[in-house]
Design a protein that fits this description.
- The protein is built from 7 helices and 16 strands.
- The protein has 308 residues and is an alpha+beta fold.
- Strands 9-12-15-14 form a 4-stranded antiparallel β-sheet, with no helix packed on it.
- Helix 4 crosses helix 6.
Length: 308
């Protein structure tokens, strides 16, 4: 029957609205029969989302667009496309950091457009990350040969930095795929399934029980300052990994009793850091790797973190 998947009830099938939307509602109804306060993370097929980010017209209340996103050129070639990459949306080559960042921005903003078109629901990257076995596992071979520098991981680090730059710029939420406690520097093992190897941790690189970063891969790419809570509404969020400066511009609301909380990782600031925040009270919590900033007046405020 040639029309089996193309027509329903005498009209052409609209998969989003005829099937996916009602499915989201059934899932949400089942979850909320137990936890009525929970949000529902929804997502379309990742490849379909890449080309058609729009969501069903009728969504459950408190839905979150949790689509997945990857650099599909890097995913398919297992190479960080440097210094020339291809933008499948723009259908043209891009060059250098600026070009690849621009490619990521177009793709992530396209995914977020599905949220905007659905009435402004939140966007969470339910999954994104970087393959650690780029270039046929070149970084693993360098590690086995004794190289403990960041140089073998420069492709993974730069790809993550550029992705997080755009996530900050667009103020998206994100979850990175993945952390696998049993990961090994072996393409036959990797994350333990489907010959995938994206874990930010490997048992083969864990050499010190006293160092929480031991075993980490491409840490400089994903470990960076970020605003965990904001006493008001965010305007601009930016981290410059080359200079080590983090800037948050926000519209402060002193009626909010809780302060702005910024995570300041020791990994990025091994020699300490300084905070500039005019008309704001600053309290440091080194053990938590946090800075708490309380605005004394409303309006636009800036918090700047830089190396000591």
């Amino acid at each position: 029957d040639e029309d089996w998947f193309r027509a329903s009830g005498g009209h052409p099938v609209d998969f989003n609205n005829d099937y996916l939307g009602p499915f989201f509602h059934r899932v949400a109804d089942n979850i909320r029969s137990i936890r009525p306060d929970w949000c529902t993370f929804i997502e379309k097929d990742a490849v379909e989302t890449f080309f058609d980010p729009d969501l069903p017209d009728d969504l459950p209340d408190n839905a979150v667009n949790a689509g997945h996103w990857y650099d599909i050129v890097m995913l398919g070639t297992r190479r960080f496309p440097w210094p020339v990459s291809v933008d499948p949306i723009a259908k043209r080559p891009v060059f250098g950091k600026r070009g690849i960042r621009g490619k990521y921005r177009r793709q992530l903003d396209r995914l977020a457009s599905g949220s905007r078109n659905a009435g402004g629901i939140p966007t969470l990257l339910g999954e994104f990350g970087v393959m650690m076995d780029l270039e046929s596992g070149a970084a693993y071979k360098a590690w086995a040969a004794g190289d403990r520098s960041e140089k073998p991981w420069r492709g993974q680090i730069l790809a993550l930095q550029l992705a997080y730059d755009v996530i900050d710029e667009l103020q998206l939420h994100s979850t990175q795929w993945n952390y696998t406690a049993s990961n090994r520097n072996d393409p036959r093992i990797g994350d333990g399934w489907n010959q995938e190897d994206l874990s930010i941790f490997s048992r083969d690189q864990a050499r010190s029980a006293d160092n929480p970063d031991s075993g980490g891969r491409a840490i400089r790419g994903f470990c960076r300052p970020w605003a965990q809570r904001i006493q008001g509404h965010p305007d601009t969020i930016h981290f410059d990994p080359d200079r080590g400066t983090f800037r948050l511009d926000y519209d402060a609301d002193p009626r909010i009793a809780a302060p702005t909380v910024i995570y300041v990782p020791r990994f990025q600031y091994p020699d300490g850091f300084a905070v500039t925040a005019r008309d704001q009270d600053v309290t440091l919590f080194p053990d938590r790797q946090q800075v708490h900033v309380r605005a004394r007046k409303s309006g636009r405020q800036t918090i700047l973190v830089r190396p000591a």
